[in-house]
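S., here's the first fold you wanted:
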Amino acid sequence: MSISENLTEYSTKSNLIIIVGPTAVGKTHLCVKLAKAFDTDILSCDSRQFYQQLNIGTAKPTPEEMGSVVHHFVDSHSINEYYSAGDFERDAIKLLENDIFKRKKVAIMTGGSGLFVKAITDGLDEMPEAPLALREELMQRLEKGELEIMAEELRKLDPEYCETADLQNSQRVVRALEVCLNSGRAFSSFHKKNSIERSFNIIKIGIERPRQQLYERINLRMDLMLKNGLIEEARGLINYRNHNALQTVGYKEVFEFLDGNYDFATMVDLLKRNSRRYAKRQMTWFKNQDAFEWFYSTDFEGIKTYILSKLQ
């Protein structure tokens, strides 16, 4: 008898299995295997895979990699839309409670975007909207090349957020800084200190690999992205380059290359180096922010056994 046929023996409550880990660690492959074992759907909480126009640079899973498993929040929005962690919290909870958990005892959510994970596990306070004049002032400073100065201001106003934030991501710096300046509170203070009590059980799993092995996989992924047309994809997205989803590793470096700021070899080195650094920041976030049970991504049986022990 399969796990899915026998779940009532284990569980009387709905369960969300959250699988997190750094880029290139193997989340997609593992989660597809788990989804087939538990006969369920996958929710993506990757903040860039939502967008239909972003494929190669986001390492979006192909139909073959999805293996006939339903993936929600992949290709769900246009790059023209703004989609926040708060929006994702609202939509994902609605999907789970009104759809998936009416059909299944278990659902799987996976991704490497820490804030989007936290939106589901803990909930987020409503982020205040800043006056348009303040946003325009900060954007003008950005255009003058003041990103480093603004990042330093943010460090003083919200050192907690800056511990894990990508301060080279200009849109995130502007958003956090405008909230701090407008509200008089740290941006991180809007992340709920007391978690919301969800109607379902949450099982938190982190996956990792030995550092050298992970870095080799990252380097190979960058080579494959370039072979598969990353430069052409970025060229087609030039008009959207200021969008938050494109102010990230994998696109910024290519835009700079297309601007003629450095040669191809330098771009490749930066893609790999910055991706490795991003993976390190992801691990820092997940190790420090929440109580995940950690496994090597290849330990499918160990992960499956752990999940069964935690089902409610």
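And the second, which I think is the more interesting of the pair:
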Amino acid sequence: MPEANSTQIRRYQTGGGVIIHQQQMLLLRRPSRQEMRLPKGHIDPGETPAVAALRETTEESGYSDLVIVADLGSELVEFDYQGQHYRRTEYYFLMDLQSETQVERPAEDQLQFQVVWLPLADAVTALTFTAEKTVARKALKAYARL
């Protein structure tokens, strides 16, 4: 008789953005979990990581006039949450805010996330997760080259 599967790994992919504008980086405060993070979310079927990153960054931040200026690569993140093990591939892109045009954020995102602009010197250390700190450092290097 086969052994019962004790740990199922849940795999998925996300796309996210690092917006740098006027020497500040956009972060999201998630008060319910005491987190500071970068905007990102699930890649929907048929979406590319870049399309998902633009969509998710707009949904979570409200800023809609975004352009990708650099591919920041991907990070593999593993974590346990509510008794499940997750393996998530996160694709990130450096984005330029072309204008401060905003759209209404979905109600769920408005409740979960507060948009925070931090000076570049403070943004990396403010982030909660190590993988996102790595991405933010990559974004700063890419931004300096532009």
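Why I say that: The chain has one domain: 9-145. The domain at 9-145 is CATH 3.90.79.10 (Nucleoside Triphosphate Pyrophosphohydrolase).

Talk tomorrow,
H.
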